[in-house]
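Working notes for the structural subgroup meeting. M.R. asked for a predicted model of this chain before we commit to crystallization trials. I am recording the input and output together here so anyone reviewing the notebook later can reproduce the run.

Input as submitted:
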Amino acid sequence: MTTDFFPVTRLRRWLDRILAPSARSAGTHEDVESAYARWAPVYDWVFTAPLVFGQRAAARAANRLSGDLLEVGVGTGLSLPLYDRKLTITGIDLSKPMLKRAHERVARKGLDNVAGLHAMDAADMRFEDGQFDLATVMYVMTVVPDPAQVMAELERVVRPGGTVIIVNHFARERGLLAWIERGLARFAHKLGWDPLFRRETVLDNTTMTLEHEERLGPLGLFTMLVFRRA
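Returned structure, recorded in token form:
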């Protein structure tokens, strides 16, 4: 049996569930948790290829440093094997189904530098001020309901002089991608992310210094921003 142009498979059924109409409004923690609970079983299959460019770039930048690293939005732990073992990793994510897969990855790959994986809200982190030397935040800012509060929390939990590495998609002003983003925007609460997220939403909500900016693949869809806390 076929539907449209390809067979109905387990993956297709999962995608149908993910993109099914939702009665909830976009932008709540419940939306995020629900969306990523649906994504969790197929997340690695669907997102490894498009996300790996940003994960590798962020890990390379982090691996030049040392100390305690916080990964905000660790998901299923796809990036955890990319970090140098000299870094001690703590990961947080709002989605418990995603964290379950991250725990399995840590055990399977023997990642003994992962100190802990916690279910936690990025806008209200249960860490001490200045607890971490650096933080990585990949593909998260378009998902959270309050990006400004997440930026404030990142500044709080990273020590003075520490580094925050953000990888994200930022909306284009013009061109084909801008047109596609506007079309996807109406499905934001089903996709679990905001296609029209603006770069200024990050830059205007931090006192940290932007030290490096780099466009990443595929097709320059993502951008890496490297900040230094004063």
